[in-house]
């Protein structure tokens, strides 16, 4: 599936596709919202949940680029390098 095809789906089909095919690869908090990052093939979908509403309040899809930066900033590369050294 391509990003362009995904974006042409209606919202309910997009959510269904994320639940069926998406892999949750990261999460983060921003104020009283929780953001979950899913990957399908070569693109990403960020779903936003509002704590006090207990519901999805937004979603956006994108490919590689600056939209991933907030998630990449949370990755501790020294821990990753340490983990990988045990597998060499």
What does this structure look like?
The chain has 88 residues and is of the alpha+beta class. The chain has one domain: Nuclear Transport Factor 2, Chain: A (Roll). The chain is 34% helix and 36% strand. The chain contains 4 helices and 4 strands; from the N terminus they run ααββββαα. The chain has helices at residues 3-8, 11-21, 69-72, 77-85, and strands spanning 23-30, 33-40, 43-50, 55-62. The protein has a 4-stranded antiparallel sheet. The longest helix has 11 residues, at 11-21. The model has no long low-confidence stretch (mean pLDDT 86).
What are its keywords?
alpha+beta; 88 residues; four-stranded antiparallel sheet; single chain
User: What is the CATH-assigned architecture?
Assistant: Roll
| Average pLDDT taken over every residue | 86
The number of distinct helices, counting runs of at least 4 residues, comes to 4
Q: What's the main sheet like?
A: 4 strands, antiparallel
Helix content, binned percent: 25-40%
CATH fold-level topology: Nuclear Transport Factor 2, Chain: A
Low-confidence stretches: none
* % residues in beta strands: 35-45%
How many β-strand stretches? 4
Shape: globular
Q: Note the run of SSEs as H and E.
A: HHEEEEHH
């Amino acid at each position: 599936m391509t990003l362009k095809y995904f974006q042409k789906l209606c919202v309910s089909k997009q959510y269904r596709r994320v639940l069926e095919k998406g892999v949750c690869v990261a999460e983060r908090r921003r104020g009283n919202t929780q953001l979950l990052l899913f990957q399908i093939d070569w693109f990403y979908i960020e779903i936003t949940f509002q704590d006090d509403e207990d519901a999805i309040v937004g979603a956006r899809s994108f490919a590689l680029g600056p939209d991933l930066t907030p998630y990449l900033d949370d990755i501790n590369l020294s821990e990753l390098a340490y983990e990988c050294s045990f597998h060499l």
